[in-house]
Amino acid sequence: MRKELYLDHPTINWVLDHCKILRLGLVDDGEAYVVPVHYGYEETANGHYRLYIHGTSDGHKGQLLAANPTIGFETDGGHEHLTYTPPKEGAFGPAFRSVMGHGQVTTLTDVNAKAHALRVLLHRYVRDIPVAIHPEKLAKVAVWQIDVTDISARVHHPTAAWQAALGLHEPVSRGIHHGDHGEVLSDDAVAPADEPAADATSGASVNDQA
User: Fold this and answer.
1) Residue 206 scores a pLDDT above 70
2) What's the pTM?
3) Sign of dihedral through CA atoms 158, 164, 167, 172?
4) 184-187/92-94 β-pairing
5) Rg of the chain over CA atoms, in angstroms?
6) DSSP secondary structure, the chain, as one string
7) 144 contacts 59 by C-beta, under 8 angstroms
8) Does the pLDDT value for residue 63 go beyond 80?
9) Which of 36, 49, 97, 162 is the most exposed place for a label (fewest CB within 10 A)?
10) What would the mean pLDDT of 43-62 be, rounded to a whole number?
């Protein structure tokens, strides 16, 4: 198992909490089909994950979910943290966090179950839901539950802030730090004498917690 792969729920939850878009891996007439969606998640009493998504049942996504309910999924973020360690050509060290897994999709038909799923989903993006969700008005809303069969997280080149949140103790990638549009934000290529520098080409990794 690679060092930066995590199976523990606190790390998986932290990544899920800090990502915005879930990508579903579906099958469309024998071809791969990927669609981005908003999502909510929760853990059951026995520690299993459930993801919730919504849409229109007569759309292409809904048709594919009905035809083949076994899917893959992925979410990621944090890519704006990029370091370059000169003078090594191509020595770019991108930071990212991601979650991948598989699951079985069920179409929710009970209006109370739909209301619960939509509340879970909305609370991922807003702390206070601006309008009430009335179960009796959800008969025509398509909501799907994904029962996760396997899930794992990756945390690559963790920044100092990520390490503090996850309790990690890895060397922070040093070099020229770039922003979202390629602008130079800072340059700490030379590490202090008492701190070992991380090689941006080596993929600074975190220890297994599985």
Assistant:
1) no
2) 0.81
3) positive
4) unpaired
5) 20
6) --TTEE--HHHHHHHHHT---EEEEEEETTEEEEEEE--EEEE-TTS-EEEEEEE-TTSHHHHHHHH--EEEEEEEE-TT-EEE-TTSTT-EEE-EEEEEEEEEEEE---HHHHHHHHHHHHHTT-SS-SS---GGG-TT-EEEEEEEEEEEEEEES--HHHHHHHT---PPB-SEEE-TTS-EEEE--S--TTSPPBPTTT--------
7) no
8) yes
9) 36
10) 93
* 172 has pLDDT over 90: no
Q: Indicate the pLDDT class of residue 153, thresholds 50, 70 and 90.
A: very high
Token couple for 192: 């202090």
- 50 residue type, one letter: R
CB atoms within 10 A of CB 59: 12
Distances (CA, A) of 181 to 58, 80, 92, 162: 39, 9, 15, 22
Token pair belonging to 116: 């619960």
Highest mean pLDDT among 32-41, 124-133, 194-203: 32-41
pLDDT at 2: 59
Q: What is the pLDDT of residue 33?
A: 96
